[in-house]
Design a protein that fits this description.
The complex is a heterodimer. By secondary structure, chain A is α/β, with parallel strands linked by helices. Chain A has a single domain, classed as Rossmann fold (3-Layer(aba) Sandwich), CATH 3.40.50. Helices cover 21% and strands 25% of the residues of chain A. In chain A, β1, α1 and β2 form a beta-alpha-beta unit. The longest helix of chain A is centred in the N-terminal third of the chain and has 11 residues. Chain B has one domain: Phosphoribosylformylglycinamidine synthase subunit PurS (Mth169, Chain: A, 2-Layer Sandwich). Helix content of chain B is 34%, strand content 29%. Classes of the chains: A alpha/beta, B alpha+beta. At the A-B interface, loops of A face α2 of B.
């Protein structure tokens, strides 16, 4: 079963995702242009980062109406694994596949650099292969990464185990100082109630090889392989 | 705008303009509004209690006045605003 990486006009992390999946994890991957009307036989879909449609109107607001999104929604409704990274997370929120929305960083500045992530549960399709050695170190690069959801929805998301990653410090403490963008409850990534669709602002594909300073992002893709019962190569 | 509007016979459609204002919901953090408020206060403007930064859109179209309001409302709800974080209001002229 292969991975599909969706390309929108303005996507710019699609190549990185394809590189990690095909070269590092030796998995079959295909690019799917946003105007395609079929995903084909795929095991998982990645909605990559970038600036789809130039972030016009709102981040992800236009991309969610691309033809392929109908098929991504159908795939998700059947239980298929879908991961949105950065702009991909914004697109999944706009499309209603994930709750909440991403708004302008509280600092009003573009934030770029490594952050620490606390993994909130280790039994999800996106976190099952996370080592227990402490927080993950993965970079962020965004201007609109402040996650917002209303208080009642936040409580039900917590109860359903839908918060997958929180921004934290090196010790794993999710305090105000470790929050790079003002997200409610330091949220860096969430999943849907069913657990098969997830989105995150940090970029695991930029931290999946030792030459890139951190390899912590690879655990996320390995978790997806585990969920798909597809063996990952020994690294 | 809508299919009905596109299919309106020439002569039966009116040229209209929708003026749409989109603002962040009160409960949502509005760092741009806060930054503008602080700048105004630094400039010496007194008595400013709140500032919200939103968007303004003008949409010109030909359509039926009877259905235009509902159509624009739908476009605002589905696409032009995000109901999770934004409110909208509009005028037709």
């Amino acid at each position: 079963m292969s991975f599909a990486v969706i390309q929108f006009p303005g996507s710019n992390c699609d190549q990185d995702c394809v590189h990690v999946l095909s070269k590092v994890l030796k998995q079959p991957v295909k690019w799917v242009w946003h105007k395609e009307t079929d995903l084909g036989d795929v095991g998982a879909v990645i909605v990559p980062g970038g600036f789809s449609y130039g972030d016009n109107l709102r981040t992800g607001a236009i991309a969610r109406f691309s033809p392929i999104m109908i098929f991504v929604k159908e795939f998700a409704a059947k239980g298929g694994l879908v991961l949105g990274i950065c702009n991909g997370f914004q697109i999944l929120c706009e499309s209603g596949l994930l709750p909440g929305a991403l708004i302008r960083n509280r600092s009003l500045t573009f934030r770029c650099g490594h952050v620490y992530l606390k993994v909130m549960r280790s039994d999800s399709a996106f976190t099952n292969s996370t080592p227990e050695k402490g927080p993950l170190r993965i970079p962020i690069a965004h201007h609109d990464g402040c996650y917002y959801v209303d208080p009642a929805s936040l409580e039900s998301m917590k109860a359903n185990g839908q918060i997958l990653w929180q921004y934290c410090d090196e010790e794993g403490v999710a305090g105000v100082d470790a929050n790079p963008n003002g997200s409610v409850w330091n949220i860096a990534g969430v999943c849907n109630k069913e657990g098969n669709v997830a989105g995150m602002m940090p970029h695991p594909e930029r931290a999946s090889e030792s030459c890139l300073d951190s390899c912590d992002g690879i655990h996320l893709f390995k978790s997806m392989l585990m969920a798909l019962k597809q063996p990952a190569p020994v690294s | 705008m809508s299919r009905e509007m596109h299919s309106a016979k020439p002569g039966s459609a009116f040229h209209m303009k929708a003026k749409i204002i989109i603002t962040p919901k009160k409960a949502v953090l509005d760092p741009q509004g806060k930054a503008v408020q602080q700048a105004l206060q630094h400039m010496g403007y007194e008595g400013i209690s709140d500032v919200h930064v939103g968007k303004y859109l003008e949409i010109e179209f030909d359509g039926e006045p009877a259905t235009a309001r509902e159509t624009i409302d739908q476009a605002c709800h589905k696409f032009l605003s995000n109901p999770v974080i934004e409110d909208y209001r509009f005028e037709l002229e």
